Amino acid sequence: MIVVAVHTPSRLGRWLVSGPPLAYLIVFFALPSLIMVLASFRTPGEFGGLAPLIEEGKLDLNLESYARFFSESVYAQIFLKSFGYALLTTLFCITLAYPLASLIARSSRRYRDLLLLLVILPFWSNFLIRIYAWMILLGPNAALARTVNRVLAWFGHDPVPLLFSAFAVLVCLVYVHLPFMVLPLYANLEKHDQALLDAAQDLGANAWQRFWRITFPLSLPGVYAGAALVFIPAFGIFAIPDILGGPEDSLIGNVIKQQFLETRDWPFGSVLSIVLTVVALAFAGLAAWVARGNLRTPSSARGSRA
Amino acid sequence: MRRRRRVVLWAAALAGYAFLYVPLIIVVAYSFNNSRLNAEWVGFTLEWYDKLFHDQDMLIAAGNSLAIALVASIVSTLLGTAAGVAMYRYPSRLLSVLVLAPIAIPEILMGVSLLIFFVLLNLTLGLVSVALAHIAFCIGFVAIVVRARLAGMDETLTEAARDCGASPWNTFRYITLPLIMPGVIAGALMAFTLSIDDFVITFFTAGAGTVTLPLQIYSMIKIAVTPEVNAVSTLLMLLTLALIIIASKLSPTLLRSE
Predict the structure, then answer these.
(1) Are A28 and B240 in contact (CB < 8 Å)?
(2) Measuring CA to CA, how many Å separate B216 from each of A100, A240, B197, B212?
(3) Which residue in B has a C-alpha nearest to residue A30's C-alpha?
(4) Of these four, A237, A246, B43, B136, which has the most CB atoms within 10 Å of its CB?
(5) Do residues A220 and A236 make contact, with C-beta atoms less than 8 angstroms apart?
(6) Which overall architecture, per CATH, does domain A73-305 show?
(7) At how many degrees (to 10) do helices B227-250 and A109-124 cross?
(8) CA gap B127, B135 in Å, rounded
(9) Where are the domains positioned within chain A?
(10) CA of A300, closest CA in chain B: separation in Å?
(11) How far is it, in rounded angstroms, from Cα B251 to Cα B127?
(12) Mutate to test the interface with A, among B97, B103, B112, B114 (most CBs of A within 10 A)
């Protein structure tokens, strides 16, 4: 007789294991986030922070900070600018990540892990150091700025500073986020069936057609995943414009920092943070939704396979 | 035709690798450069390292960073391992969301919400608040590595142990834990690296009096470019790269994107 012992997970064991991390994350992540949402409905305190919750028997909850956000167009403009920077960053990352990811996906097993590790390593070096590196590279005395300005001088153009400019901010945004695009793109390209490309070639498709009509459509789920991974952190960035940008390159992250640490207007800072979260999550949701939809509707490449 | 395409692909990818590495190599090279300017190579010197080891502020910052990273990596490894095991054994939506959300949202959001939280709690901002914040975002990274390790484990081993009468704790202690240990260590090294490198969340939760290495680097580069920053950057890079390479050897899944 065969006895099959079924060990049902005990309720106690479950709580002993998941209880501590759950409790920690509820206290130090969920609760602070909830408090921030509540703070967005409060009145700023006289000396920064928040006004008392209950004053003269009245509960302090209002929509004033939201009203301010929607009435002063400067904040919508900064959001739009941050959105533009994050979108451009995403597009440049796709362009740069494509050759890297395809090379890694096509290389032999022996080199693949090394090539992948080389993409990931810069991501693990300190964030500030990577920003600082561009301060050096784009600095006024560095070779790059001198060469650019010498070329500009030939055309009779005044010298332009590379550092503390929108250009510096964008280059560094792309630099910092590139690994986030390479990884999902590589994971996708690795799974492609070479037979599809061979078939296309047999049917007379040239390299360009094979890329645009087979490889690229099939890689879209990877592109969308990478886009979400790049766009979200790029949208909320504050250190890069803070260090490499000029006064006009302030993005939404800088305004949030300013509200919390300088103006000390917590309710308004919370409103900006919440809008940032909503836009970032909407973008991630959109990317996931488009990626799923893309898998269901047979693209031309999949259609030919069916 | 085919060869030309390969050459083009290689050239484009090489340009990509150069873009990733040239900036970091320049930081390292100029840390040995006998010039204040960080603009062109003059000659070799160790002056900046010597200066670094006599810079009192920098040494205090390094001490703070190490203390925070040690505490944060130990606590987050314990909690993150539990979270990883729980996510694998008892999948729950709530736990997954709470573990992964701190990784997915822009860092600044966690920074400001913890700032409000700590100030409302009347907790003096400093080493403790920074460590508490670091633990919160490290848990997720440890949990992901541990769960990946569990997913690659032979489930029949734990079933055999249970069939032989081992209690759930003994099964975990003598079967599961030794098997997932490389993942746990990899997670701990990752947590240490993330903590010692963190700038954004530390910036909001450290308060005025406490300085960590990244905060010290930030205040230095806000004033001017100086080779002393190159020197500290070089040492910090060496440390984190060594930790990450060891971690990726222990847990090859670190290389696969999640």
Answers:
(1) no
(2) 34, 16, 12, 6
(3) B98
(4) A237
(5) no
(6) Orthogonal Bundle (1.10)
(7) 140
(8) 12
(9) 18-62, 73-305
(10) 24
(11) 30
(12) B112
What are the distances in angstroms from CA A25 to CA B95, B203, B213?
9, 20, 26
Q: CA A19 to CA A21: how far, in whole Å?
A: 6
| Per-residue pLDDT reduced to its tens digit, A140-188 | 877 787 888 888 888 888 888 888 888 999 999 999 999 889 988 988 8
CB neighbours (10 Å) of residue A248? Answer: 10
Longest dimension (CA), chain A: 95
Residue with tokens 């099959």: A4
Name the residue type at position B81.
Answer: T
Q: What is the DSSP string of B2-52?
A: HHHHHHHHHHHHHHHHHHHHHHHHHHHHHTTBS-SSSSS---B--HHHHHH
Q: Quick one: closest CA in A to B243, which residue?
A: A124
Distance of residue A38 Cα from the nearest chain B Cα, in angstroms: 11
Q: Which two tokens stand for residue B26?
A: 């320049």
Cβ distance A126 to B143 less than 8 Å, yes or no, reads: no
What is the ipTM metric for this complex? 0.88
Q: N- to C-terminal Cα distance for chain B?
A: 36
Nearest to A128 by CA among B116, B148, B136, B214: B214
Note whether A173 and A237 are within 8 A (CB): yes
- The per-residue pLDDT of chain A, averaged, comes to 83
Q: Which domains does chain B have, with CATH numbers?
A: 55-255 (1.10.3720.10)
Mark yes or no for CB contact A33/B113 under 8 Å. Answer: yes
Q: Dihedral (C-alpha) B28, B33, B38, B42: value to the nearest 10 degrees?
A: -140
Cα atoms in the 13 Å half-sphere on the side-chain side of A93 = 33
Mean pLDDT taken over chain B = 86
Residues contacting B51, CB < 8 A, separation 6+: B228, B231
B114-160 residue pLDDT tens: 999 999 888 888 899 999 999 999 998 899 888 888 887 778 888 88
Q: Give residue A275's pLDDT band: very low, low, confident or very high (50, 70, 90).
A: very high
